[in-house]
Amino acid sequence: MSQQHFTTPPSILARKKDGDVPKKQTREEYRQQKELEELRKAGSAPAEVDEEGKDINPHIPKYMTDVPWYVTYDHTKPTLKHQRIHPEKSTTYDTLNEWYARGHADKVATRYRPGACENCGAMTHKRKDCVERPRRLGARFTGSDFAPDEYVQPDINLSYDGKRDRWNGIDINWHQQKLQDEHKRLAEAKSILKAKKLDEEAEAEEQLEAAEIANNTETEEPVVTVPAKPGGLDDKTKSKKTNKPDSDDDEEDEEYKYTDSMDMPGQHVDSKQRISVRNLRIREDTAKYLLNLDAESAYYDPKSRSMRDNPFAGTNKDPSQVPYLGDNFVRYSGDAKAFATSQIFAWEALDKGVSIHTQADPTKLELLNKEFHEKKNQFVKTVQEQLIERYGGEEHLNSIPRELVVEAQTEQYVEYNRFGKVIKGDQRATIKSKYVEDVYENEHTSIWGSYWNNYRWGYACCHSLLRQSYCTGVIVEEKEIEFETNNKFDDTNGDKPKSLTEMHREKLNKQKLQPKSSSATDEKDSIMKKLDKKKIQDAAKEIEKRDKQAEEMALIDERKRKYNSLKTDTNDYKEPSEEEKEAYRLKKLRHDDPMAQFIPFDVSIRENISYGDNNREDIPLDEIIQVAKTANIHDFIQSLPQGYETNCGAEGTQLSGGQKQRIVQEALDNAIQNQTSITIAHRLSTIQNADLICVFHRGKIVESGTHEQLIALNGRYYQMVQHSFKYK
């Protein structure tokens, strides 16, 4: 069984059947068609018209204008119908005027109608769909109490915007009527207030006239009275009361009533102030862009309305005769410069809070400007005098001008050699250093930079090359400095510096010669044993004495302190002993590190506790036991093999960290008994016995309760406990 495949589109087959087969174009026809397309694109030939009479854009690509093969309607003529939305496929939506009826009520029937609901009598539903209360006898049998027919709302098809329109279904007429009524009531209230104001003014005028008549009667002067017209008021007052307050004449007057109070340019203007007269140019003046109609003249920027260049440039016109020279032109002749300076001063004064105007108060502005410049010049002169008084140099300000010095001749005799050095006569002044002059730091008698040696600055008084060093009063010889510098690179034997390989081999040889049992700890212990404890205590007392004297001296006023100076005798200085170094290290640790007082030494516990009071040597055991009980460590010491005579080891190596932590924890527990305390902790073991535990997470309390309750919740606290155990 064979199967036939058709590769030709059905529309082409249908055309072949009808004999409507497109002919093949020749080269000449194809060329003419391309030329016609180019002419249409250039606008020389009329555009192609489709079957509906609409012009086809010649710039549309060919693949868009060609009709696809699957289109069934006749498209022998040019068309874009296949690119447009078909009416049968487009969706139509309801307009804004179509909406659901609100409050619609139908007429109630007076008799039962066939096909109506047997329960309520409505025609829009049956008995099974009735939402009325089920009656014992329906409206069909009673013939009364019929319910009205439900109004079936239309099915409105809204677009995407129509479904989300918040004003959809509003009654425009009702809204307009509401606004009109509101404005009408407002206008009536304004007219009543204005009429009341006119009445008050008329009454005030009558009272004023009556008072004048009474005064004239007392002074016995003749008074000329005008008889009142019928109606009680004269024509002027009557016209005021009869005119409407919201007439067109009043509106025209109100339009120009703000002209007099309008601010001038440069004056502070409130943004909320009404200005009905626009600050525009006079219509009789020629616009700046019309002064020179040449296209190559000055450029006019319409956005900023500015023409910066001279529009009459290159026209051979006298600049003094033209009316405009550009926005960048500033007149310097006459008082123009002084006026501009005064205007700038007025603006700056306005920013500082001084209310002043160039045109309104010219005399006040001139006086303020003069007073300001006098005070400014006086201030500059005072500052200059203070600088001269402190640093000197007044002779340079009063010196002869340079041009006179260069051209003048003097009788001063100076001889120079061929290298420019002075042989005979005044010597050149020594060049000062780049550092601050006449400032003596750290008790030096010379400034920093007064001494120079080996490409380094220093102090001339002691030849010190360190900027922050204190003056010793002893001048170090240059030979000693060179010797110390050379010792950094030379050995004692004067050999060359050793290489890294040689230094490493020497280090290995020293390690081989040392016994294996030696270590850093043994070396430290041997040094501690050699030290005299009595000398350490004496040195510690001496350090405390000096610190106390320094604190007392700091509390005394500067003007009442005694004069102190460093000793210049070098024989009084000696290198501190090992005991003094150890005492200084202990005191330094206690001063800087708050935990240093808990670091025990390689002596008994009793001696370590006695170090807390360096003023006494032999402290009774009873007092030490009382101190241990206060610190909550008495029971722990009694549990040790030798009690208070137990050796702690160097830096407390015989005591574990857990023992120290338990002692501190028990001391804290005893301290917070019978009182409320708040503990913030990350180590959960320290708060397990708390009465209330609050768990914070991301700034909020997520859980609260005792340790057992939070564990039972299996929440955030439980996860933290599990994590801590896992970490341990």
Automatic annotation (TrEMBL):
GO terms for cellular component: spliceosomal complex. It comes from the Eukaryota. The keyword Nucleus applies. Residues 15-41 have a biased composition (Basic and acidic residues). Signal peptide: none annotated. Residues 158-450 form the Pre-mRNA-splicing factor SLU7 domain. Residues 1-10, 511-520 have a biased composition (Polar residues). GO terms for molecular function: pre-mRNA 3'-splice site binding. Keywords: mRNA processing, mRNA splicing, Nucleus, Spliceosome. Residues 1-58, 212-272, 506-527 are annotated as: Disordered. One of its GO terms (biological process) is mRNA splicing, via spliceosome. Gene3D superfamilies: P-loop containing nucleotide triphosphate hydrolases. Coiled coil: none annotated. InterPro entries: P-loop_NTPase, Slu7_dom, Splicing_factor_SLU7. Its main location: nucleus. It is found in: Nucleus. Involved in pre-mRNA splicing. Belongs to the SLU7 family. Associated with the spliceosome. This is Pre-mRNA-splicing factor SLU7. It comes from Adineta steineri.
